[in-house]
Amino acid sequence: MSQKVASHLLDEIADLIAERLGLHFPPERRIDLERGLSAAASKFEFESVESCVQWLSSSPLTRSQIEILASHLTVGETYFFRERKGLEILEQDILPNLISSRRNDRRLRIWSAGCCTGEEPYTIAILLAGMIPELDRWNVTLLATDINPHFLSKASAGVYNHWSFRSTPEWIRRTYFSQTKDGRFEVVSQLKNMVTFAYLNLAEDAFPSLTNNTNAMDIILCRNVLMYLASKQVRTIGRNFYRSLTETGWLIVSPCDTSQDLSSQFESVHRSGAILYQKGTPSTGSERPFEWRVPDDPPVSWVAAAALSELVVSPDASAVEREPTFTDVEEADTHDADQVPDEALKLYERGHYLAAADKLAARLAQTPEDAQAMGLLARVHANQGNLVEALVWCDKAIARQKMDAGTHYLRATILQEQGALNEAVRALRRILYLDPNFVLAHFTLGTVALQLKRLEAAEKHFENARSLLSTYPQEHILPESGGITASRLTEIILRTTVRKVIQ
Question: How many Cα atoms sit within 13 Å of 22 on the Cβ side?
């Protein structure tokens, strides 16, 4: 196959890939781009790379084409307990504080964005298993997403060779893996069941969203991903990560990912040769930034144990200065009360949840019957992970505005997250009584049915959702979805199988 591609065609396809996949191929990486395109051309059954590039550039990329390109253009090099510095901070400081503060509701939400073949989320699962003795009594969400479907397939299988354990001590491998007949190692089922793998394109898919479970995250890990993305995409993704985090939540990147293109809303925290980003807020009533401390009863450091066999040590990261943002946000009582809901909505959309809550509290103090303010306050609490408070405000809003299907849907998703599945089903059916064409209610009934292992019912609900989605334009954004399009939800449904429930 011919490997030569005209320079102007490479420029065009590089721009297209940056826009649709977020991947950045500057001139010095054009050899990597041509190599990946050559492999993709074979998959697309073209005899030359140039003819394949011309074809891809001639019309909008489909989801299938994006996935094939991603499978040949993304890097799959990773291993367990990679980048020890960041993991030590996570294990010794961030997680102990989170676990201590969540002793009552026993809830944690962590997202590995760009999880590759799964070593990172499984590493986090191992840490949690070692730090929380009663882990089976906790509601832990460990979401792992990637744009490469081949990586996700391997990650879901959870089978690895010796090279993936080059920074892992033998006792961890013995405890959390079983040896296969061909000499490889499979993640034990208890650990495998902790992680949910899903396709997500950081450059195109909507987040945060209840639909893809990317809201109210305590920690987002996006390591060795951003360095491959275009600056414009990094800025956009950084803003969306900010909105996906709870107040004072954490974004953990690798030293090579630190960049001024990350949203300047974050507080950069420097410690032990690593840089982390903590969510801040313009509200004067916000929580104080995280203070490093040694727990009274620190856990045994599994990361330190893993470091004994580590072959690669991450370099120290350079400092990233934080730029001031949203300095025009003032106290609620300096504005006319009628302006408060709009200002609160803008703050909510930017991810400034505490500031939005302040505005809404001021509004409700003056107008106690404002159902719109109550509904938005419920969403504010939900995106901070405060499910009990969110449910209270949902009920208050519904009591005053019984026909609001959106608030009913939020209530149903909160009940699902709390594990009250039968009550969630009743809430979803109530939505369909109000609006039989509310497609997300059909979809969520399918996911709840899967959780209850009612497989025939799940298929029926998903089919109802697919039927409704077929009547929408592909790029139609679904109400209450957080920006999910009809075509994207259709693909999510098609990727949802009952096999994951049976395993």
Answer: 25
Residue with tokens 């993936």: 164
- Nearest in space to 97 (alpha carbons), one of 85, 108, 112: 108
Q: What is the pLDDT of residue 233?
A: 85
Which of 408, 414, 358 is CA-nearest to residue 390?
414
3-state secondary structure 218-256: EEEECCCCHHHECHHHHHHHHHHHHHHEEEEEEEECCHH
What stretch of H or E contains 160? strand 159-160
pTM given for the model:
0.79
CA pseudo-torsion sign 452, 405, 495, 146: negative
For 366, residues 6+ apart whose C-beta sits below 8 A from its C-beta are 337
Amino acid letter, 282: P
Dist. CA 250–CA 248, nearest whole Å: 7
State which H helix or E strand residue 57 sits in. Answer: helix 49-57
Residues 163/168/170/172 CA torsion (nearest 10 deg): -120
Q: Which candidate, 351, 329, 335, 344, places its Cα nearest to that of 374?
A: 344
Q: Quickly list DSSP for 415-466.
A: HHHHT-HHHHHHHHHHHHHH-TT-HHHHHHHHHHHHHTT-HHHHHHHHHHHH
Whole-number CA gyration radius for the chain: 23
Coil/strand/helix, residue 141: strand
pLDDT for 488 beyond 70: yes
Please give the single-letter amino acid code of residue 439. V
Structure tokens at 423: 């009550």
Which token pair is 45?
Answer: 């059954």
What is the three-class DSSP state of 486?
helix
Q: Which residue is listed with tokens 């997500």? A: 200
Q: How far is CA 126 from CA 87, 91, 129, 430, in A?
A: 12, 11, 5, 40
Q: What distance in Å separates the CA atoms of residue 478 and residue 484, rounded to the nearest whole number? A: 6
Q: Round to whole Å and give the CA distance between 167 and 32.
A: 27
Residue 477 phi, psi dihedral angles, 5° rounding? -85, 125
For the stretch 26-54, pLDDT in tens is 887 888 888 889 888 888 888 888 889 88
Query: How far apart, in whole angstroms, are the C-alpha atoms of residue 180 and residue 157?
Result: 12
Tell me whether strands 159-160 and 139-146 are parallel, antiparallel or unpaired: unpaired
pLDDT, tens digit, 9 for 90 and up, residues 162-194: 999 988 888 889 999 999 999 999 999 999 999
| 329-363 exposure pattern, b = at least 16 Cβ within 10 A, e = fewer | beebeeeeeeebbebbbebbebbbbbbbbbbbebb
d(CA 277, CA 261): 13
Q: What are the structure tokens assigned to 85, written together? A: 């510095």
Which tokens in the block code for residue 266? 């974050």
